[in-house]
Amino acid sequence: MRIIVDCMGGDRLPLEAVKGVCAASHEYNASFILVGDKAQILRIAEAESLDLSRFDIVDAPETVGMNDDPLTVIRTKKESSMAKALGLLAEGRGDAVVSTGNTGALFTGSTLIVRKIKGIKRPAIASLLPMDPPVLLLDSGANVVCTPDYLEQFAVMGSIYMHRLFGIRSPRVGLLNNGAEPCKGTSLQTESYERLSGLAGINFVGNVEADKIPKNACDVLVTDGFTGNILLKSLEGMGHLMISTVKGLFMSDALSKFSGMLMNKKLYLLRTRFDQSELGGAPFLGISKPVIKAHGSSDAKAVKNAIGQAIGYASSGAILSIAREIKTFAPPAAAQDAQTSPEGR
User: Each residue of 279-290: pLDDT tens digit?
Assistant: First the structure.
């Protein structure tokens, strides 16, 4: 397994990406290609006493900024670390790409350089929500405007992903809506409800209201990218609020501080539950090869976990299953194949 890492994206470039790769190299059986400003990467490695002798480094001094237009990666910054990383993946010189860079540019570049799976109308960003058990949300930001066709394919791709990577035999698919009744929502929701209800092989459980998401209502939650991104950011913000509120309660007086010391391990588990670095990143489902988008503020731990996610996705056989099953919208066949095919053994 060979993982390509765009080292020049995000808020902490390239230090945290390089440290994350070094940490991943000790944990995962994989080789790595670092793409970025070679001189800067080597300076940082020397300053941090990091051994990069085991890695290939591809020089790419140009950077796609967070405010750059998404088409920048294929129009004006073809020598950027992001463009070169995606190009290496498209050429087959690696098995997956991990980047903390501009989401729009990475998504556009993945679609136009690496290319979509044949038959996929629009790829989607698939984010794991920190529920118990986890819920896969798609789309979480790539497609602001969607059609029922898109949501139908999101349901298929999400079902295959959760089966292949989490072992769920028949993932429950929910449609995010403002009510449980089939007539609720805009035309997108009502039409999608009707189509998902009749989609053979999808375990559709109906509309899911936002307050039901933490109550194990579904395994896959489909929606348009605009609504999905708002939900994702709201959950991230609520997680931070919960943690700071609980921390404040245990710091209010001496007795509370003592209680907090006794509860320290439990509080740590609560913090890691909502810690973005624990989740790694989000795959672009529908792209023909694995591309993982990590958070722009990712530290070394988050980059390492995103690399682990990339390795899991690349070795799962999910992309092959999506390419096969998207033709007939029959994900259960993927579940059957997983027991007989080489990658399912």
Answer: 779 999 999 999
The 3 state secondary structure assigned to the chain is CEEEEECCCCCCCCHHHHHHHHHHHHHCCCEEEEEECHHHHHHHHHHCCCCCCCCEEEECCECCCCCCCCCHHHHCCCCEHHHHHHHHHHCCCCCEEEECCCHHHHHHHHHHHHCECCCCCCCEECEEECCCCCEEEECCCCCCCCCHHHHHHHHHHHHHHHHHHHCCCCCEEEEECCCCCCCCCCHHHHHHHHHHHCCCCCEEEEEECHHHHHHCCCCEEECCHHHHHHHHHHHHHHHHHHHHHHHHHCCCCHHHHHHHHHCHHHHHHHHHHCCHHHHCEEEEECECCCEEEECCCCCHHHHHHHHHHHHHHHHCCHHHHHHHHCCCCCCHHHHHHHHHCHHHC
pLDDT on residue 331: 40
Q: Are 15 and 42 in contact (CB under 8 A)?
A: no
pLDDT per residue as tens digits for the range 53-101: 999 999 998 999 999 999 999 999 999 999 999 999 999 999 999 999 9
Cα angle 139, 149, 130; round to 5: 20
Q: State the average pLDDT over residues 25-53.
A: 96
What confidence tier does 268 reach under pLDDT thresholds 50, 70, 90?
Answer: low
Calculated CA dihedral for residues 201, 203, 316, 322, nearest 10 degrees: 40
Q: What is the 3-state secondary structure (H, E, C) of 170-228?
A: CCEEEEECCCCCCCCCCHHHHHHHHHHHCCCCCEEEEEECHHHHHHCCCCEEECCHHHH
Q: Residue 6's beta-bridge partner residues?
A: 35, 99
Pairing between β-strand 203-208 and β-strand 172-176 as defined by DSSP bridges: parallel
Query: Which pLDDT tens digit goes with each residue over 211-262?
Result: 999 999 999 999 999 999 999 999 888 877 877 787 787 777 777 776 767 6
Instruction: Report the alpha-carbon distance of residue 140 to residue 282 in Å, rounded.
Output: 9
